[in-house]
Amino acid sequence: MQVQDDDRVYDDINITPMLDLAYVLLIVFIILTTASVQGIKVDLPKASSATSLAKPKTKAITINSNGDVFLDAYPVTLPELETRLRTAKATEPEFPIVVKGDAVVQYQRVTDVLDLLRRLDLNQVGLVTGRAEER
C-alpha cells in the first residue's frame, strides 16, 4: 500500500493570476490615459483684433507670355513691384510669395523678379509649375 504525500514541493509557479492582474492594469492605464488626453472644455474669450494672429496672406507674382508682371492680378512694373513689396514687408516681415512664370516668357524676366525678391530679403518664395503630361 502506498501513502500519498500532500506535503510535496511544487516546482511550477502558476502565472495565470499574475497575467490576469497585468491585463487589468493595462486596461485601466489605457482608459485613464485616453480620458486625460481629451482635456477640459472651456469657453474661450473673443479677441478684439484677430487679424494680428492670422497667417500672412500669400502674395502672387505672375509673369505672362508678353513679359508683363502682375502682383495679385494687378499689373505692375519692376520699380512698382519693389515699392509694394517693401511696404508689405514693413507691415509683415515674413510672408510667402508665389512666382508663376509663363512657359514661353524670357528667362531673364523671371530672373529679374527673383533677384528683386533676393535684394528685399524675402526668403519664402515658391515657383509654381504645371504637371507633366503622362505619355
Overview in brief:
The protein has 3 helices and 5 strands, in the order H-E-E-E-H-E-H-E. With about 140 residues, the chain is α/β, with parallel strands linked by helices.
Keywords:
3 helices; elongated; 14% strand; five-stranded mixed sheet; alpha/beta; 135 residues; 5 strands
Q: List the secondary-structure elements in sequence, H or E.
A: HEEEHEHE
Q: Based on CA inertia axes, which overall geometry fits?
A: elongated
Which parts are unreliable, with pLDDT below 50 for 5 consecutive residues or more?
none
- Main β-sheet, spatial strand arrangement: 3-2-1-4-5
The biggest beta sheet is recorded as: 5 strands, mixed
Q: How many E strands?
A: 5
Count of DSSP-assigned helices: 3
Q: Multimeric state of these chains?
A: single chain
The structure class reads alpha/beta
Describe the structure.
The protein has a five-stranded mixed beta sheet with strand order 3-2-1-4-5. It has helices at 16-37, 78-91, 107-119, and strands at residues 59-63, 69-71, 74-76, 97-101, 125-127. The longest helix is centred in the N-terminal third of the chain and has 22 residues, at 16-37. The chain is elongated and about 105 Å long. The protein is α/β, with parallel strands linked by helices and 135 residues long.
